# Entry
Amino acid sequence: MAAPTAGKVVYEQDGIFIHSSTERNEDQDSLISGILRIIEKDGELVVEYKPLEDGVDLSNMLYAGKDSSSVVEWTQSPTEKTQKNAEHQHSYEAEWDMINTVSFKKKPYTNGEGTSNHVHERSKWAFFFNVIDLKTIKIKLEGWSHLVFCLKDETSLPALHFHQGGSDLFIDCLKKYVLINESLFDERVLIVSNYNKALSQSFENLFDDTTFGLVQKFRKDPYTTTMGGFSKVTNYLFDAFRGADVEHQQRPAAEMADSLNEVIPGLEINHQEEPGFEVIKRIDLGTKPDVQRREPVSVEDWTKNMDTEGRIQNVHDLKQRIFNGGLCHAVRKEAWKFLLGYFPWNSTRDDRKVSQKRKTDEYFRMKLQWKSVSEEQEKRNSRLRDYRSLIEKDVNRTDRTNTFYEGPDNPGLILLHDILMTYCMYDFDLGYVQGMSDLLSPVLYVMENEVDAFWCFVSFMDQMHHNFEEQMQGMKTQLIQLSTLLRLLDLAFWNYLESQDSGFLYFCFRWLLICFKREFSFQDVLRLWEVMWTGLPCQNFHLLVCCAILDSEKQKMMDEHYGFNEILKHINELSMKLDVEEVLRKAEAICFQIKNCKDLPYAVREILEVIPDTTTPAAEICEHRALDTRSPPNATCTDELQPNPVPNGRD
# Structure
């Protein structure tokens, strides 16, 4: 990292002292006078302290790797520091793009015979760090005020004494760039968090700071907060409200829940004063019908539905088959293009060839836009620079256990990176938001083609776009809709969640955000997505998938009296343990229950776009289809509703 003073100085004050005891006289304070600066450079904020000494050589200062701050381990001897930093540098240079490690590099420093011991004594106190690595600030205002910076790796820098006052001005300046709150447990400690754009933090860094409250994290970075490492989410929730010095103290669940309800304005899902609010009363939905899944659509099944010119015939019946059993993998590469809207269902082979040629040209024109940006240009384009940085970090963490993406220098990773960068050119307002790599990865895996994967991803993002917008309107709407459905399906369970301060359904946030990508195995995700893309058997079928999962777990939660923390922990630990076929069966059965309800509330009809069927019970429909000679013996009981024009639509 270059000397930080090369940037824009937004705060500067001299007469800042470090009180140091010298080796010559440990009882006597040696005052090191210096300048404290806050420097803005290339979108980053750096705090720098430099002793006032003509002979100070900035090369003595430690400087950071790309993902960490410069930090001095003040308790280490110079030899230990040099050895440790060299080891970190070796690891960092080799694998910084594969794992997010805290690592440090140090410029060569030699305490030669010709170097003044006095100069060394003063210059060794020089330090600077990136504000994103600042964890807390300890303050003392009595007498000479002083500040102590504590970094996220638990390093404490020397106390800076403001002999002429002005520490409050420094804090005020810092507040323009970061969020600073007083600790709940010690008024002398200020908790620092960053005003990051949505999803701008890496997964690992998010959970490094256990004293930074969950609410603040969720407010500033809701997506990353819910998408962090599975095993860390639960532990983090338990620790989030504990003070730095209070090991076992914890805030009440009700207080945590109330804070979470304030995170997304308008998310309070029990507002009966809301215009158009409809009270959902207990309704007898009857028992769920026994729904069976079918075999996946084979290559032969697919080609049977194509005429001589390549048009897909019997589109609704084909979608019904896909909903009932999914697709065999050999069909996915072609079928997904239709399901996602890349190819129109009524297009011919010639139509598709012409369209592909046009789309290929359009894709590479957009790709050229970011490929041709020089380093000098990018220095003046902070948004593109931020997009690229976040994409590079996320790509190197996405599905690395999948053979398609595993290993170093994997071409799949390069394609992921290039497609996501090109999407930034396609939709620069949205750009890249953390979580989008999760949506692209299965699409690229199936397509095995850069251009086709891009345009299928574009269609997928058209459906998911509202999830990633800054105002989170799509997420608000879906959580409110899910709550409405849950009240209809099992009012007792919903009331139980409310009694445990979990009625806001925050634990479903990640499910909805990235379409269950991290809840099922990779192959199960492929099956789930293609089923939902049919738009059958109702609008917002993905909400019924949520209901199906909760239906399977509700008894355990209620019987064992799970509280706020236990509910979050339990739901989190379901990841990769769910059976997609079982979940789909139950979700479809729930759809039948709802459709068969005679007094279906208007709010539910609007969410699912269903018309209650009061003439034929669901069980009779299943029996009729089981006897249908055109279907195999294990024919599935499904809804005959017309598909929604926009599959898996978001209100």
The radius of gyration is 29 Å. DSSP finds 26 helices and eleven strands in the chain.
